[in-house]
TrEMBL record:
Coiled coil: none annotated. The active site is at S11. It comes from Stutzerimonas marianensis. SUPFAM superfamilies: Homeodomain-like, Resolvase-like. Transmembrane segments: none annotated. Belongs to the site-specific recombinase resolvase family. This is Recombinase family protein. CDD domains: HTH_Hin_like (cd00569), SR_ResInv (cd03768). Pfam families: HTH_7, Resolvase.
């Protein structure tokens, strides 16, 4: 039988890891990786160390599901990777574990709900963009320069005494943006 490795996380320094530590100790965790960091942060170094320490046959134990994943899709992704590596997963509060058939079923229902949520968001986004287009709105960023400004800039840059950087500054754009609109005008 493999090791039981715990992962505990709190969002701020004001919060305390004691409750999670105690719960993980009661489940027989051999080691616990602890982190004080927002769950929204993609860079969670202790979680990375924890995941590297897990081997096939081990079980990752968390106090609650929200301690592991930043979102349901993120959680599903992490647990799916664990499953592919032969590592079990257990959440103490929700009483979910993926080492049994029933536990896997419950977790896969969560995964299906996460995919459903992603698809709904995608559909709503498409519908919103289509409605905006129907009202004559164009998506994307407003152009940095108007047609009249581009004509003025081209006329100014015909004078070899005028520097590209000066023109760019005058119109409030970068040299790169200026070149994108008028093309390269030779060395300056």
């Amino acid at each position: 039988m493999g090791k039981r490795i715990g992962y505990a996380r709190v969002s701020t320094d004001d919060q305390n890891l004691d409750l999670q530590r105690d719960a993980l100790a009661l489940t027989g965790c051999n080691a616990v990786y602890e982190e004080t960091m927002s769950g929204k942060s993609a860079d969670r170094p202790e979680l990375g160390h924890c995941l590297k320490a897990l081997r096939s046959g081990d079980t990752l134990v968390v106090w609650r599901l929200d301690r592991l994943g930043r979102s349901l899709p993120d959680l599903v992704g992490i647990v799916s990777r664990l499953e592919q590596e032969g590592v079990g997963f257990e959440s103490i509060n929700e009483r979910i574990e993926t080492t049994s058939a029933a536990g896997k079923l419950i977790f896969h229902v969560f995964a299906a709900l996460a995919e459903f949520e992603r698809n709904l968001i995608r559909e709503r986004t498409r519908a919103g963009l289509a409605a905006a287009r129907a009202r004559g709105r164009k998506g994307g960023r407003k152009p940095a320069l108007e047609e009249a400004q581009v004509r003025e800039i081209k006329a100014l840059l015909k004078d070899p005494q005028i520097q590209v950087g000066t023109v760019a500054k005058r119109y409030g754009v970068s040299r790169t943006t200026l070149y994108r609109y008028v093309g390269k005008t030779g060395p300056r």
